[in-house]
Design goal:
alpha/beta, Rossmann fold, ProC C-terminal domain-like fold, eight-stranded mixed β-sheet, 8 strands, elongated
Length: about 270
C-alpha cells in the first residue's frame, strides 16, 4: 500500500446510483459516514451536496485508491464494468458487490486474484432503510474491511454474514425475492376481499395495512411467527376456518417451499 494514501480518508466509491445504489447512498449520508464519497454514474443523477459524480471511471484521479468500491450496477453489465477498477486490487481496497448471481470467483476472474471481495444480497426494503443484506467475503478480506463493508450495508438495514457462499442462493430466494411474495400476498388478499363484496379501494387499504402492521408486530414481538399466528386464532372462529384452507394439503406452506426452491435453482443457474 502506498504511504501517501493514508494521509487522509481514502473514501468510498459507489459504482451505479440507481434504486439500490441510491438507497445505500442516502443511508450513508444519513449516518454521516466519515469517508468522502464519489459516484460513477453515466446518467444524470441528483446527488447530495458534496458528492462528486463521474460519468466514467476514466475521470477518477490517477492516484485515487478508495477504501471500498461498491458495485450497484446491473449484473449483466459487470463484465464490461469491472476491468476499469482492477487497478485498485491489492491496494487495500475492498470490493463490495450487490449484484445478484455474480460469485466471488467471477470477481476474482475480472478483478484479479489479489482482490478482496464481499458479495452481498440486499432486498428492496433497503429503499426505506428497512432491508436486510446477507454477505459473504473471500479469504482476502481483512477484519477491518469486513467491518467497513458491514457498516456500508447496514446503512440500508440489517446485515447477516455467511461463510458458505452456496447459501447466497437460498438467501436470494427467501429475502432477495421475498418482497415480491409479500406484495403478491397483498394483491391476493385485496382481490379476495373484492370477491367477498368489499369495494376495491377499501379491500386494498385493508390488505396493505394488515400486512404492514403484522410485519411490524412480528419484527417487534419476542414471540415467533407460529405463536403470533396462534394468538390470532380462536378455536372455532373465522381465522381458524381460513387457516384450515391455507394450511391444508397443497396450501401455503407447500406452495412457498416450491416457490423458494424454484428461485434457489434459478439463482444457481444464473451463477453458473
Amino acid at each position: 500500500m502506498k504511504p501517501n494514501l493514508l494521509l487522509k480518508p481514502r473514501g468510498i466509491l459507489l459504482v451505479g446510483c440507481g434504486k439500490m445504489g441510491g438507497a445505500l447512498l442516502a443511508g450513508w449520508k444519513k449516518r454521516r459516514l466519515p469517508q468522502p464519497i464519489a459516484v460513477v454514474e453515466p446518467f444524470a443523477a441528483t446527488l447530495p451536496t458534496g458528492i462528486k459524480r463521474h460519468a466514467t471511471p476514466a475521470t477518477l484521479p490517477k492516484r485515487y485508491a478508495p477504501a471500498a468500491v461498491v458495485f450497484a450496477v446491473k449484473p449483466q453489465t459487470l463484465p464490461e464494468t469491472l476491468p476499469a477498477y482492477r487497478r485498485f486490487a491489492g491496494s487495500g481496497t475492498v470490493f463490495v458487490s450487490i449484484a445478484a448471481g455474480k460469485t466471488l470467483g467471477f470477481f476474482a476472474r475480472h478483478l484479479g486474484d489479489e482482490a478482496a471481495v464481499v458479495r452481498a444480497m440486499p432486498n428492496t426494503p433497503a429503499a426505506i432503510g428497512r432491508g436486510i443484506s446477507v454477505a459473504c467475503a473471500n479469504p482476502l478480506v481483512t477484519a477491518a474491511q469486513r467491518a467497513l463493508a458491514n457498516r456500508l450495508l447496514a446503512a440500508a438495514g440489517e446485515v447477516a454474514w455467511v461463510d458458505d457462499e452456496a447459501l447466497i442462493d437460498p438467501v436470494t430466494a427467501v429475502s432477495g425475492s421475498g418482497p415480491a411474495y409479500v406484495f403478491l400476498l397483498i394483491e391476493c388478499l385485496a382481490e379476495a376481499g373484492v370477491a367477498s363484496g368489499l369495494p376495491a379501494d377499501l379491500a386494498t387499504r385493508l390488505a396493505r395495512a394488515t400486512v404492514a402492521g403484522s410485519g411490524e408486530l412480528a419484527r417487534l414481538s419476542p414471540e415467533d411467527a407460529a405463536q403470533l399466528r396462534r394468538n390470532v386464532t380462536s378455536p372455532g372462529g373465522t381465522t381458524e376456518a381460513a387457516l384450515k384452507v391455507l394450511m391444508g394439503e397443497g396450501g401455503m406452506a407447500a406452495l412457498m417451499r416450491r416457490a423458494v426452491t424454484a428461485a434457489t435453482d434459478r439463482s444457481r443457474q444464473l451463477a453458473d
